[in-house]
Amino acid sequence: MAESAVVNRKRSGTDDVVSENDGKRKNVVAPDMDPAAALALTRHEFGEHGGVNMSIEASATFTVMEPETLCRMFTGELGPDRDFFIYSRHFNPTVLNLGRHMAALEGTEAAYCTASGMAAISSVLLQLCSSGGHVVASTTLYGGTHALLTHFLPGKCNISTTFVDISDLESVESAIVEGKTNVLYFESMANPSLKVANIPELCRVGHAKGVTVVTDNTFAPMVISPARLGADVVVHSISKFISGGADIIAGAVCGPASLVNSMMDLHDGSLMLLGPTMNAKVAFELSERIPHLSLRMKEHCHRALVFATRLKKLGLKVIYPGLEDHPQHELLKSIANREYGYGGLLCIDMETVERANLLMAHLQNDAQFGFMAVSLGYYETLMSCSGSSTSSGMTEEEQKLAGISPGLVRMSIGYIGTLEQKWSQMEIALDRFQEKQPLV
């Protein structure tokens, strides 16, 4: 289609409108810019009557003044870059504004926001792969993504996946079949193992073989910027850190304008035709939260590092990329954005599911340290035993290959209360645990 989803521009009558064809861009952030600085440079959308917050465009459909205009819109001659909208399953002004911020956050040319993270992931893969297509993916992925690649895509779409240890670049290179493989897919910080991807090297390998590199950055917004390191497409479950409230389900696809526009094509676009549309009211809510994402991420990461360090000193088996003994600690230091820390999640390996469940029960029910719940990025600490929850769809062998032990407790560290208050609650739970069996 002719309309462009390129971000960092105003609509008609302004000075930073750009189409894919004119090659001129203004007010575009530098590729290596700090994510918070990039967000601050994006246009602030004011309300219809001059409000400091934008108005919500809640319309499902949009009117035109002349019948010929509608025809020109459906041919792609007129589009949202010139303030022409057809239907909110296609483009909506409020959702488009959120996409502008997501693109700035990740340093991509464009972004489109979806109804969920899985909608973003599945739509990208279906757009990039046809029947007979092939994906090379990390052995360690979110359980829903793993199920999509293992069961749904092969069975329903004839798209196969080869799973590899992405830390072994030779295995990645060997798994990519030139002329057949379409996508190299991995998470910047793996769920739940917290293995850090060597994004620059993986992109080098993937691009040398002519494949599109897609990275899920849900675990590390602000901390890592995959597109700035070479990734072609970045996907998110906005439901997590970016939302921060555990009250919204949403996702995003960040990448080249050409890809986003192809996904919104009226004839064969996966987003347009499958319809995982974000509601404008949800987009408004999220647009109001992104400006303080950097502050929240810094506190998530700071507390995670403090707790990981203290727990390790107590002798617990702690997995956290901020610890010097983490296998990818130096790698993360070399690719992370400065000042944002090492991520807001840590894992404690309690070895068995029984010990994991006992610890979580004490943490929630005796000490009020956090909640036993899936998801992450909430202001309260959320914890779950991954092998028996979000990764339970994987076989025992698949979990072993993914580095998921039966007793792996994944914790998304919140920032409510004071740090020392929460640490005292942690100590209470550990003492209660030790009354029943040895802690380590």
UniProtKB/TrEMBL annotation:
Positions of post-translational N6-(pyridoxal phosphate)lysine modification: 240
Annotated Gene Ontology cellular components are: cytoplasm
Query: What Gene3D superfamilies does the annotation carry?
Result: Aspartate Aminotransferase, domain 1 (3.90.1150.10), Type I PLP-dependent aspartate aminotransferase-like (Major domain) (3.40.640.10)
The segments labelled Disordered in the record are 1-27
A biological-process GO annotation: transsulfuration
Origin, by domain of life?
Eukaryota
The cofactor required is: pyridoxal 5'-phosphate
| Record's keyword annotation contains Membrane | no
What InterPro entries does this protein map onto? Cys/Met-Metab_PyrdxlP-dep_enz, PyrdxlP-dep_Trfase, PyrdxlP-dep_Trfase_major, PyrdxlP-dep_Trfase_small
Molecular function per GO: carbon-sulfur lyase activity; pyridoxal phosphate binding
Q: Which UniProt keywords apply?
A: Pyridoxal phosphate
Family note = Belongs to the trans-sulfuration enzymes family.
Question: What protein is this chain from?
Answer: Methionine gamma-lyase
Task: Look up and give the organism this protein is from.
Answer: Glycine max (Soybean)
Q: What is the lineage of its organism?
A: Eukaryota, Viridiplantae, Streptophyta, Embryophyta, Tracheophyta
Q: Which gene encodes it?
A: LOC100781016
